[in-house]
Amino acid sequence: MTGDADFDLTTFLPYLLNQAAERLSLEFQQTYKVKYGMLRTEWRVLFHLGRYGEMTAKQICDRAGLHKTKVSRAVTALEKKRFLIRSEMAGDRRHSALALTKSGRAAFEDLCRDAQAFDAQIRASLPDGEAQLLERGLMRLAGLAQD
Amino acid sequence: MTGDADFDLTTFLPYLLNQAAERLSLEFQQTYKVKYGMLRTEWRVLFHLGRYGEMTAKQICDRAGLHKTKVSRAVTALEKKRFLIRSEMAGDRRHSALALTKSGRAAFEDLCRDAQAFDAQIRASLPDGEAQLLERGLMRLAGLAQD
DNA sequence: GCGTATTAGTTGAAAATGTAACTAACAACC
DNA sequence: GGTTGTTAGTTACATTTTCAACTAATACGC
Prior knowledge:
CATH topology of chain A: Arc Repressor Mutant, subunit A
GO molecular function (chains A, B): DNA-binding transcription factor activity
Largest interface: A-B, 56 and 56 residues
Oligomer: homodimer
GO biological process, one term (chains A, B): response to stress
Shape of chain A: globular
Organism (chains A, B): Aliishimia ponticola
CATH superfamily of chain A: Winged helix-like DNA-binding domain superfamily/Winged helix DNA-binding domain
Structural class of chain A: mainly alpha
InterPro entries (chains A, B): HTH_MarR-typ (IPR000835), MarR/SlyA-like (IPR039422), WH-like_DNA-bd_sf (IPR036388), WH_DNA-bd_sf (IPR036390)
Protein name (chains A, B): MarR family transcriptional regulator
CATH class of chain A: Mainly Alpha
């Protein structure tokens, strides 16, 4: 009849990926949303600064694969929450270095613990060794693999 | 220093999942966006009706895990494009059966071919057997597994 | 140095999403 | 048969995201 009776959504990788990603994101979102009133992009920016240290908005865009307007707004929001400060860079005043404040760092460390616990819980819910496999495959698909 | 130096974003499953999902979705999105000016939710609704046959909005919500307002708007949009028609159900006038029109079906079949090709291409880009593993793991995480 | 191009980042309007309140139809209980 | 509760779906409003235009600073060509 349709000629597509064999093509199921649940085997279409983009769909599967989305369902899984949405499910986990939504769940973890609760943590930073409730605790700190953060949006996903804010959490990502916070994480990048906390994990990889001081950097410019552009560098965050590149590393995180986020659009510059999203980052710009997240930075403004985090600044308003006093989680980060900008400092002009001598030599090139177009961009500024972003760094976490003390409370920004505290929030980062707190959320990191939650994230680690969440991640561990997910991994524990999978059969032995599957998490590793999944991780490898996802890195490839995300374009983060070393190939 | 931070105590979290070992916790890398690239091993945090929700993040990885998101990166991979976004990447693939964005790429495939081009297809239905350019060809038919459809949004992701519209494509999903179209797909459900094409693949599983006539059903109500509620059934689509449940099967696709979409919120009813999203579905409602997607249905309106698809109706405007003349890709589907509603027919009142005798006996219960609260819900109506949704069915693809001829051109709706044609769009579905066309996009299905594209989707299958896209999926095949992704799978081919992965090492032997990895796609299967990935699929299994994702189904579990997405909560679609039979466990 | 001066005009042009590029780059970092911001802003504003339009599109999309999420939340909650709403309408309409049915069900159930008495 | 009327009151109350539930279900399907829509609408209205606030929040987010996206897109395009913009500013400001630097780099380049000559």
